[in-house]
Amino acid sequence: MLPSQRQEFILRKIEGEGSVKSIELAREFEVTNETIRKDLEVLAEEKRVIRIHGGATRITDARHDMPLPARQSMNRFEKSVVARAAAQLIEPNDTIFMDASSTVLTMTDYLPQFPLTVLTNAHHVIVALGGRANCDLICTGGRYEERSRSYVGAMAEGAMKRFIIKWLFVGVDGLHHRLGASEVNPGQAVLKERLIPRAENVCVVCDSTKLEQKSPFIFGEISQFSVLVTDDRAAPGILELYESAGVRVIVAKLPREA
């Protein structure tokens, strides 16, 4: 069977079932997982499917995240306090990755002035830090998403393979002590999932409204995270769930008038 024929069969299967798993497709077509992965990437590049961890889903089933300006307007004060606390983890000459979440973007206001290497897939991080002294700024490139104003896909994932990341700073749409960290955007979720094993430390930065919540696309287990930075509106009992899982929890205190 030609690749184009197999891809059409896969597309019809996705349209009928909503989503597919790579391992099941490989078994059905009697080919390797790598062959199916390439088929799905072709269909994704043609914008006929959305790639998700372990397979693909129908375009109409994808739950897209809110546009970046809308996300920035939500819980702005909490994000600012959390971002400031997270930035204090960084040391001179660190190589850090900053994702495309609105809370991580807020960290650009508080990055220390000493020398840093900043890797990112976020267009607005590039804009915020462009021209900054002592900052070696590196963008992943890749397929540009207007809503998240960031880069995703195979090119973005592959661009980071040669870097040793001291701190990976990620935002979440949901963080659950049992289910892990999740996103509404599948492209962002896959990129984060593939960066986590390459980072020495992974820090989740999120306001307390994201705790014990879940979104469609899981990108990391709790055991993979080094630090959680959140605000002091989080219930102590909830924070204990993460601490008992081995995560260092940093609570950023909000002024009483906030």
UniProtKB/TrEMBL annotation:
Keywords: DNA-binding, Transcription, Transcription regulation. It comes from the Bacteria. Residues 3-58 form the HTH deoR-type domain. One of its GO terms (molecular function) is DNA binding. InterPro entries: Carb_Metab_HTH_regulators, DeoR-like_C, DeoR_HTH, NagB/RpiA_transferase-like, Tscrpt_reg_HTH_DeoR_CS, WH-like_DNA-bd_sf, WH_DNA-bd_sf. Gene3D superfamilies: 3.40.50.1360, Winged helix-like DNA-binding domain superfamily/Winged helix DNA-binding domain (1.10.10.10). Coiled coil: none annotated. This is DeoR/GlpR family DNA-binding transcription regulator. It comes from Thalassobacterium maritimum.
